[in-house]
Every structure is written in C-alpha cells, then in structure tokens.
C-alpha cells in the first residue's frame, strides 16, 4: 500500500477541439451539441482543460456550464474577443491562477492577429501559470492550435513554442503543452517537439496501456473510421509521470459531441 508520504495526488489533463459554431454543421451545430460537450467534460472532470476552435459565444456557454472551473481565453484575431481562442480551464478547488499570456504563431509573436509563414489564418498559443493547492507546486500549461494548411507554419510554430516555453518556464518546473497540432506523428512539427529532450508524448509515455483508437480526428458520425492522430498532450518527463492516457469515444445517438476526440491523461509529479 502506498504510504501517505508517497501520495502525490494525481491530476487529469484534457485537450479537446470542440469544433467552432457554424451553420454548415446542420444537426451538429453547436446549439444542438453544446450540452453534450459540457456533460462529457463534467463526467471526466479534468483538473486542467485546453479547448480549441472556441468562439466567443461558445466560451460563454462553456464558462456557464463549467462553473467549477476558472478560465483564460483571448480571440486570435485581436487578442481580446474576436475570433477563435485556445481556451484554458482549471478546477478552482485544485489550482490557483498566478499568471497568463498569449503569443501568436508568427514572425511577430507579440503582435495580435498576425499570420506566420505560409499559414492560412492567425494562430495562437495561450498559457497559464498555476499553483497546485494540494501539492503546493507550480505548473505551466500551454494550449495551441496549429494551422491547417501551412506546412512551414506548423514546423516553425513548434520551434517558436519551444523557444517561448524555455523563456517563460525555463524547464525548471512542470510544464504541459496540449492542442490540435494538425500534424501526424510522422510530421516535422511533431518531431520538433518530441526530439526536444524536455518534452515527451504522453501517449507514448503512459505507464498503463493507451485506451481508445489511435487517431483523434473523427468527423461527427460514428459510422466513419477514426482519422489521423493530430491532437496531443506533451509533458516534461523529468517532472511529470503519465499514469493513464486515452482517446475518448463517448457518443450520443451515434454522433460524437465534436469532430475530434478528446484526449485525456492522468498525470502525477515526479518531484
């Protein structure tokens, strides 16, 4: 039996592309599935959650439905409330927010609304500095969404994020990077992150067998095969241990709540 002194109070991290609110989705438009997204999150109760493709109205709905969470989000178009955000939610009872920020995935990362390299759209990475109330440890959490078209942009975005994490965190503490990277494990963007000795893919680091399909892009309809793996949780392996990892396939009446599967990991502190 684990002694009290050894107990490190594991915590759960989830990344989830919730799909933007658009009329072209018909029966799968946000209005019809928002409660399913919120119920899924509340069922698994991640301690920290990163979502992508979140528009201002969706942020309002999530904030209302996730009242047990604090949050941070800015729109990618202006750094305020215009455009999609990479929102971060954290459990009030577990974590305290001590700092936050956003930078753009471009050659001018501190200039709001900028597109980088061959990207089709402005892209961002938002981050928070949290204090774990139970363990009195500091945690940095980064959440991002890479461009869907720009191959160069995805590679350079990975490089930029690693540089910024080193500047903000210094790798001397616990850091997590999550998001929709629009990149498979064979891509330059993925290899840029995993070839860095300070980061590891949580799926490949889990102490128990990964649960769920290999991919994360799903469409809404369960009758179709799961597509590529493009959503990830990366951790600093010197500081964090992955106990469990899963791609969640919860559905309602044969439809997923989003066109991506949420990724969930249970982590604990190494030191």
UniProtKB/TrEMBL annotation:
Pfam families: Exo_endo_phos. InterPro entries: CCR4/nocturin_mRNA_transcr, Endo/exonu/phosph_ase_sf, Endo/exonuclease/phosphatase. Residues 14-260 form the Endonuclease/exonuclease/phosphatase domain. Coiled coil: none annotated. It comes from the Eukaryota. GO terms for molecular function: 3'-5'-RNA exonuclease activity. PANTHER family: CARBON CATABOLITE REPRESSOR PROTEIN 4, ENDONUCLEASE_EXONUCLEASE_PHOSPHATASE DOMAIN-CONTAINING PROTEIN. This is Endonuclease/exonuclease/phosphatase domain-containing protein. It comes from Rotaria socialis. The lineage of its organism: Eukaryota, Metazoa, Spiralia, Gnathifera, Rotifera.
